[in-house]
Amino acid sequence: MAITTREGDHSYVTQPAKILAMKDLTEDTRYFKFKFLDESIVEENYKPGQFAIMSLPGVGEAVFSISSPPTRTDFIEFGVRKVGSFTEALFKLKVGDLVHLRGPYGDGFNMESLRGRDLIIISGGLGAIPLRSVLLYVEDRREEFNQVFFLNGARSPADMLYREDIIAMAQRGIIESHLSVDKDDTGEWPYHEGVVTTLFPKITDRVVSEKTTAIICGPPIMYKYVIQELLKLKIPKDQILMTLERRMKCGQGHCGHCAIGGRYTCLEGPVFTFYDVQHIKELI
Amino acid sequence: MCQKFTQISTFLKILQISKILELNSKLLYCISLKFSIFRRYPYRLPYKYNFKNSLDMKTYKMSKDRFPEFIEKIKTKGQLYGPVKGNGKYSFEEIEKFEDLDFDYQRTVIGPKKFLTPPRYQTLRYDKSGQTDVFVSDETQIVIGVHPCDIHGIKILDRLFLGNIKDPYYEKRRNNLIIIGHSCLPDENCICQSTGTDMVEDGFDLFFTELADHYLVWVGSDKGLSIAIENEDILTEEISEEEIQEYVRWQQKRSEMFKSEIPSFKYLADIIHLNYDSKVWDQFGEKCLSCGTCSLVCPTCNCFNVEDRISMNTEDGFRERILDSCTLPCYSMVAGGHDFRPDRTSRLKLYYTHKLKEYIGRWGQPSCVGCGRCVTYCPVDINVITVSKALYEEVCENQEVCE
Ligand SMILES: Cc1cc2nc3c(=O)[nH]c(=O)nc-3n(C[C@H](O)[C@H](O)[C@H](O)COP(=O)(O)OP(=O)(O)OC[C@H]3O[C@@H](n4cnc5c(N)ncnc54)[C@H](O)[C@@H]3O)c2cc1C
Ligand code: SF4
Ligand code: SF4
Ligand code: FES
User: N or C: which end of chain B has fewer CB within 10 A?
Assistant: First the structure.
């Protein structure tokens, strides 16, 4: 099951991985590329949307979505925003330094079950990090999917993640992308301005509701409004896939922190269908 | 509604008796036949069917004056812990000699969960040269004097920690633990009769029921059986009809001693569901101090935090697991400062809904074992009894379902 757990290891054993490359994506968000020291670990046995737990001795552990797709082996990528003690320590590391990884955890997007479907991928802010895994999966297996729309929102032009990559993918016809910022403070933003839901009119007439699956990831506040739009488009509730963020300490259903109602986000999530969680009162 | 409930449980009892008849074990038969008349617990049946050892479950008798001898012998197997009184309260402590033990108690402050998922323990050590796992020692621990509710508590922890993904630390401690139960008599805070955890049929290695001059010693596992066989000089399998009668009378007396109950425990999940937005939660939230005592003492609360500590010389350090509580602030806070449960009301609601409702959905049984610790220790009287009573009254007022 797990990429980092081998026969005989217990479930908290971590595997050392070396930083191969890093790149600043925005002022506070950085791209990291890792390679496991143990060559026998093959980084392909996971689904987009699953996450790994990273450990830095002396600092602690933190949860990050795997940002590379299972179709690209030999390395594993993350995107990290600097928000606190762990992420600050991670940002101080240099190429060649080691971190310790365990995982993958949770239930991700079941891409194989989406074969032949239209996809609307909706991302807000940091949500683009896990959804990058979905987008690159689509790029590598484009023939498996029908139309693919990507709606990406960010606070400002400087906060937009992977802008060049997305535009390049759109130019190659892999996705139809629509970018938006809440507020253009530069005066040079060539695309749409407004919250991500204001992008919907650009695709509405081409959405075939019974053939479409929506994939959402973004800040908690975004879900309510995006789901309203999707329901207006008559996308079935069980075809609205969303990833939820909760505090997590173990990733194995034991520490209790990620509970929503009777579910553990680290086991049954972070990807849920809207149908599954619609009645849970603590959702957002 | 209540009448229906009684009918159903009578039906279950009859079923249960017939099941026991099949087992054809004289002792079980006599006891259950007499007992089932005042057993009130409808969840009991499934356990009976699952009960692997029931056919060859052995029961011994031990004269009370041989007990010190038993303690001396069991001590040779590992580190012995048992109930000890100190500071006016009981706790499970290391036992040097028989006289340290005091079985005349209702509840320890912290239950035997401290042997399985200690409030604080290290999992990793590191220094400049690298990191090493800190693992559980191989030492056998024996805990004696565990009451039925606490044994049920361990069974609930087992289900969580030894399910599909096994927690390696818990698993090793559990395998190294010998559990010797002891009978008890309830005080006014015990509610295990309501939760149906006043009796145990498995989950222990040996269980001692204290009667006037002797103990009945029940064997609950292979480990327990081998201990019993090693002690055959002080145990006998000969139990007379009269002694069975004495046991039945003792159980009858015990079951009549319960003074507190949780109203409509069976329907509590539904009552909680119907009352999700009730103002009752705000009233309790207003009072709650967010002190975490309820989680510290509850035998089924196991949430933990993971933290790294660096020593003063900044050269080395360790990672540890610390018992956490969902009633504490920041329990559900994520990066960036968003808190999914920012107020005491929502956290308290998590505590009680998770225990009394969500556990049923997940495991078929709530995770309250009626030990009465929250009743005894919450400084502001928030506990399963007051919470469930308040919710029950809400439903009665608003929905007119109760006469
Ligand atoms: C499923 C999932 C996927 C995630 N994916 C990413 C990602 O791809 N990129 C990214 O930048 N961030 C991601 N996060 C958030 C990331 O886990 C937090 O940014 C990180 O834990 C912050 O740690 P810190 O010590 O820097 O922050 P601090 O604010 O100093 O953290 C304080 C404490 O809170 C805990 N904590 C804070 N937020 C979270 C959280 N969301 N989940 C668990 N524990 C938390 C930390 O472990 C730490 O103990 C994800 C979170 C989850 C649950
Ligand atoms: S319910 Fe009582 S014991 Fe629990 S945190 Fe609140 S005040 Fe403390
Ligand atoms: S909720 Fe209270 S009575 Fe129930 S098991 Fe926990 S401490 Fe004991
Ligand atoms: S992260 Fe520990 S239970 Fe989900």
Answer: C
ipTM of the complex: 0.86
Which distant-in-sequence residues (6+ apart) come within 8 Å of B27 by Cβ?
B59, B239, B244
Among A5, A12, A102, A222, most B C-beta atoms within 10 A, so best to mutate, is: A12
Q: Which of B155, B193, B177, B144 is nearest to B39 (CA)?
A: B193
Beta bridge partners, B179, equal: B143
Q: Residue A113 is encoded by which pair of tokens?
A: 């079950």
CA of A111 vs chain B CAs: smallest distance (Å): 24
Query: What is chain B's alpha carbon radius of gyration, rounded to the nearest angstrom?
Result: 23
Instruction: Give me the domain span that covers residue B387.
Output: 265-402
Q: What angle do CA B364, B150, B106 make, to 5 degrees?
A: 135
Instruction: Say if residue B348's pLDDT is above 60.
Output: yes
DSSP-derived pairing of the beta strands B141-146 and B177-182: parallel
Of B256, B282, B299, which closes a domain?
B256
CA A218 from centre of chain = 9
Of B129, B154, B158, B114, the C-alpha closest to B321 is B114
Q: How far is it, in rounded angstroms, from Cα B314 to Cα B14? A: 67
A19 reaches B (C-beta below 8 A): no
Q: Could you tell me which CATH class the domain A111-283 is placed in? A: alpha beta
Per-residue tokens: A140 = 């590598």
Whole-angstrom distance, CA of residue B207 vs CA of residue B220? 7
C-alpha A41/C-alpha A4 separation (Å) is 7
Structure tokens at A1: 């099951």
Kindly identify which residue of chain B lies nearest to residue A60, measuring between CA atoms: B308
Read off the pLDDT of residues A2-30 as tens digits, 9 standing for 90 and up.
Answer: 456 666 778 888 889 999 999 999 989 99
pLDDT at B26: 38
Superfamily of domain A4-105: Translation factors (2.40.30.10)
For residue B292, count CB atoms less than 10 angstroms from its CB and return exposed for 0-12, middle for 13-18, buried for 19 or more: middle
Q: Is residue B27 part of a domain?
A: no
Nearest to residue B320, comparing CAs of B331, B310, B308?
A: B308
B305 to chain A, closest Cα gap in Å: 6
Give the length of chain A: 284
Taking contacts as CB-CB distances below 8 angstroms, the residues of chain B near A247 are 331-334, 340
What is the count of residue pairs from A and B with beta carbons less than 8 Å apart?
90
**pLDDT tens-place string over residues B203-240:** 999 999 999 999 999 998 889 999 999 998 999 888 88
Q: Is B156 in the pocket of ligand 3 (CB under 6 A)?
A: no
Q: Which 8-state DSSP code applies to residue B326?
A: T
Closest residue in A to B350 (Cα–Cα): A261
Q: Which amino acid is at B191?
A: I
Q: For residue B291, give how far its alpha carbon lies from the nearest alpha carbon of chain A (Å).
A: 17
Query: With an 8 Å Cβ cutoff, are B168 and A11 in contact?
Result: yes
Going by pLDDT thresholds of 50, 70 and 90, the confidence category of residue B356 is: confident
Are residues B298 and B230 both part of a single domain? no
CB contact (8 A) between residue B304 and residue A249: yes
- Alpha carbon distances (Å) from B146 to B85, B112, B247, B303: 15, 7, 19, 22
Chain A contact for B158 (CB, 8 A cutoff):
no
Residue A134 in tokens = 């979905």
